[in-house]
Amino acid sequence: MRIDHVVLGSRDLDATGDRYLRQHGLASVPGGAHPAWGTANRIVPLGDDYVEFLAVVDPDVAASSAFGTFLRDLTAEGDRWFTVCVADDDLDGSAARLGLDVVRGSRVRPDGTEVRWRSAGLEDPRRDPWLPFFIEWQVDPDAYPGRMAAEHGVEVTGIAWVEMAGDESRLGEWLGGVDLPIRMVGGQSLGVRAVGLSSTEGEIVL
Fold first, then answer.
1. Which segments of the chain have a pLDDT < 70?
2. Mind listing the pLDDT tens digit for each residue in 77-136?
């Protein structure tokens, strides 16, 4: 297992992209739409991982989707970190261990490339919202979202760590004892609190 990407709930994809470029030198590119949820995303490519900006773009469709509704409510007062996604080479085994369903997903990038994956836990009520969900990509390596072309203003090399509020023992059980660079902190508001990226100019804290 490894951290695949971290998801930021966004009120406005273009505004979020402009802010991250201005404040951190991080460029983002359109990722595509999720028609069943009424959402779309932008990708901050980092090579072997990435940051995803995710926003409701069709409020009517989102209102009919539990996931779309959750994202709408999460971002009602502005951008907020949503969750961590973990790449899992044994997705079926993890799903069986946790009693999760494995579902297929896909989206089409603006260049026409179809991006496909299998995941477990994202929309499953058996996952506490602050816990990571799991993914297995079904794409050629060059089509992986982290390898999309983007001109960052800083030489960034990937996700170094994620800071999260929650129960450390519960996280350990959820991940099957796998040690990931997730720093647990206290607090009433559970979930991702900050993300650290490695760069040639030192850590970038988002």
1. none
2. 999 999 999 999 999 999 999 999 999 999 999 999 899 999 999 988 889 989 999 999
Thinking of the domain 2-153, which architecture would CATH place it in?
Answer: Roll (3.10)
How far apart, in whole angstroms, are the C-alpha atoms of residue 51 and residue 182? 15
Look at residue 14 in the predicted model and tell me its pLDDT: 97
- Dist. CA 51–CA 188, nearest whole Å: 24
Give the CA distances from residue 8 to residues 42, 160, 204, in Å, rounded to whole numbers and listed in that order.
Answer: 10, 16, 16
The tokens for 124 are: 């499953």
Domain residue extents for the chain = 2-153
Following DSSP, what letter does each residue of the chain receive, concatenated?
A: -EEEEEEEE-S-HHHHHHHHHHHH----EEEEEETTTTEEEEEEE-SS-EEEEEEES-HHHHHTSHHHHHHHHHTTTS-EEEEEEEE-TTHHHHHHHHTPPEEEEEEE-TTS-EEEEEEESSS-TTS-TTS-EEEEE-S-GGGSGGGS----SS-EEEEEEEEEES-HHHHHHHTTT---SEEEE--SS-EEEEEEEEETTS-EE-
